[in-house]
Design a protein that fits this description.
217 residues, mainly alpha, 11 helices, elongated
Length: 217
Amino acid sequence: MHGELTETAVMTRRISPERLAPYADATGGDPEAALQLYTWNADVSAALAATLGHVEVVLRNALHESLTNWSEAEFAESKWYLDAGGLLQARAVKDIRVARERAGRNGRRSETPGRVVAELNFGFWRYLLASYYDATLWRQALYEAFPGQARRRIIQDAVEVLHLSRNRLAHHEPMFNRPVDDIRITALELAGWICPVSRTWIERRCSVSRLLGRRPA
């Protein structure tokens, strides 16, 4: 059957007309142009996802370091996620419990702070920067993770943009109709507020700008 159809027709079927619909709309209903845009979208999405991944790791490790130092000084407990001060919301406590179970493989390996941190999703870190913690975790510990930016709300807004973008990328949603370069800039700014060296390192490895210049006509 495939021998009777063009590659474009086969791939339109395999990817599905529903998934390709936004690309078809953007290219005037041209199936081949829609596939080209879809392919480009996948490339730029992968590049943006790599950059956001680097920034997420830098972010969570910076927050982890600040919380560890604070917990050690305040409670003589390096494992801040044990919540010695009882400051975390129920949602965060639940996320930590699940992360600890995964980190220890339900008792099959030793739990370490690094493994727990790696199991906590981006949403967890985003909500640690919310206004709920402004008078507690932010003023006592988290502000130290951002020597380049003193305003919690600006940081929270940037992290929200990256979190929503990351979720969209994870579900393979279109990015060609999103402000991809603005998202890239926000990611780099956030990294710079934490560590200028990290920003430079991530920016050198980011191919988003190059790919944006190759968008199909």
